[in-house]
TrEMBL record:
Coiled coil: none annotated. This is DNA-binding IclR family transcriptional regulator. Residues 6-68 form the HTH iclR-type domain. One of its GO terms (molecular function) is DNA-binding transcription factor activity.
Length: 270
């Protein structure tokens, strides 16, 4: 027996799926054309989705892309087992190898959401418990993911100084330009770093995990007492998160985004 379609729901889901398949935000006219929808209906659907946060409207560019609520669905899916279950063993092995606390996080709007936390023996407690959210631009985990997003997606999330915040006296990027420069450094070096911007005296290093489309699905990180780690040990930690991220990418049947290009699907999928 064939289940009857609900036209509004069908159009909404097709619209979201279309936006998820694009490299960057697109114009409403293009959406209407590709989905064979009347323009007036397309604008109505977009307005409703913008109101609920599933779509972002870039006013100056007159383009539409996926919004924070769409990423929240992605994060919720990840929390319900697949990513956390697969990632836990990778994080545990990494922590056992280097003796520092590790975690796995996903992007959740402008925050990172921690889905795995593995504390090393005799190491301090961290604020990054499972389920905790922290502004992505302050964390190594968030910076690793943001650096792998298309520039238009980052602009949609961080378009003005009001989108930035601080947690400690060690301030992170406070303006879009500062964030762009920081993310460019992350892309050049292959790892993201944070020193005292989340918790005083603690530092973190992270690397991005890609899904099968090349999209940044998550990041793997290690957190340590900065005063106890010299340059050689820090290099070892950076290599460890890169190896763990590569292993988790492999287990997700993922592929790394090519340098200078961007992935095509902004939703984590198995």
């Amino acid at each position: 027996m064939t289940t009857p379609k609900v036209p509004a729901a069908d159009a909404t889901l097709r619209l979201l799926t279309f936006l998820a398949s694009r490299r960057a935000p697109v114009a409403a006219a293009r959406i209407a054309e590709e989905l064979d929808l009347p323009r007036s209906r397309t604008y109505d659907l977009l307005a409703t989705l913008v109101e609920h946060g599933y779509v972002l409207h870039l006013d100056q560019e007159r383009l539409y892309g996926l919004g924070p609520s769409a990423h929240e669905l992605s994060g919720a899916y990840a929390r319900q087992e697949p990513l956390a279950r697969i990632g836990r063993r990778v994080v545990e092995a990494m922590v056992d190898e280097v003796g520092e606390s590790g975690h796995l996080a996903v992007l959740h709007g402008r925050d990172v959401l921690y889905v795995v936390e593995e504390r090393a023996r005799n190491r301090p407690s961290l604020v990054t418990d499972v389920g905790v959210r922290i502004p992505a631009h302050l964390t190594a985990s968030g910076r690793a993911i943001l650096a792998a997003l298309p520039p238009a997606q980052v602009r949609a999330l961080y378009g003005s100084a009001g989108d930035f915040s601080a947690r400690t006296e060690v301030t992170g990027p406070a303006r879009p330009r500062e964030l762009r420069e920081l993310l460019a450094q992350v892309r050049r070096e292959g790892v993201a770093r944070e020193r005292g911007e989340v918790t005083e005296d603690l530092a973190s290093v992270a690397a991005v995990v890609h899904d099968h489309t090349g999209w940044p699905a998550a990041s793997v990180a290690l957190t340590y007492l900065e005063r106890r780690v010299d340059d050689a040990a820090r290099a070892r930690l950076e290599a460890a998160v890169q190896d763990a991220a590569a292993e988790l990418t492999r287990r997700l049947k993922g592929r790394s985004g090519r340098r200078g290009s961007h992935p095509v699907r902004p939703v984590y999928r198995t």
